[in-house]
Amino acid sequence: MTASLPMYARPETQAATDRLWTAIRAALGHGPATLDTPTDLMAHWRDPALVLSQTCGLPYRAALHGHVDLVTTPDHALPGCPPGYYNSVLVTRAGHAGSGPEDWARMRLAVNGGDSQSGWAAPAAHLGTTGHAFARVTVTGAHALSARAVLTGAADLASVDAQTWRLLLRHEPDLRALHEAARTEPTPGLPLITALGRGGAVRQAVRAGLAALSEDDRATLDLRGLVDIPAAAYTALPLPPPLP
């Protein structure tokens, strides 16, 4: 058996995440004693021994739908988003504070990866509604690295998951020097998944585990609740264009 909660992992939140998993495992009655840190996430997510993990909406609709059970979606109560939804924050340096879509199309965009809803699909769709497209993209491998690329001048614009951006502002205060240029339209948040056939039992255990979590740990993780968003809400979104 294997389990992970990798999507918002940080040293400052690890202890609270571990306690959440311990509570879920106790409610479920089985599962690995500790969370894994997989290096090949797609293989991990498609492992038939998967008890619980969290994925991004883009890999879910592009590669995982029909191969895993959707469990539920955490609600982080993000501004401007319905429960269980999130969006992307486009950030620039203060010198680009007055820039707009036409400028962004010429800027160097930093993204965590081409398989990311918040890093690539959301900003591509956002800019596409204005008739423009990004022409210069740098892949950093992580939202935090995208923000730092803008801060250091290695990129001009970054698209960062709104919950990650909240955590970055809380735990890496030098990034507060960046300017929030825009937020994209909300889309379904990062879903919890399990192997096929496990969904019902794992869903109940996740709800019980969250209910058992202390208020302090909930605050550390910004966990306000759980929302059962239908798979169709994820799969209805279009796939983004390839990275330029």
Give structural attributes.
244 residues; alpha/beta; D-Maltodextrin-Binding Protein, domain 2; 2 domains; 5-stranded mixed beta sheet; 12 strands; globular; Phosphate ABC transporter substrate-binding protein
Overview of the structural elements:
By secondary structure, this protein is of the alpha/beta class. The protein folds into 2 domains: 124 residues, D-Maltodextrin-Binding Protein, domain 2 (3-Layer(aba) Sandwich); 98 residues, D-Maltodextrin-Binding Protein, domain 2 (3-Layer(aba) Sandwich). A 5-stranded mixed beta sheet has the order 1-2-11-3-12, with helices on one face. Helix 5 links the parallel strand 6 and strand 7. Helix 1 crosses helix 9. It is globular, with a radius of gyration of 18 Å. 43% of the residues are buried. This is Phosphate ABC transporter substrate-binding protein. It comes from Pseudaestuariivita atlantica. Pfam families: Phosphonate-bd.
Number of β-strand runs: 12
Largest sheet: 5 strands, mixed
Radius of gyration: 18 Å
**Count of individual helical segments:** 10
| The number of domains | 2
CA-CA gap between termini:
38 Å
Protein name: Phosphate ABC transporter substrate-binding protein
Pfam families: Phosphonate-bd
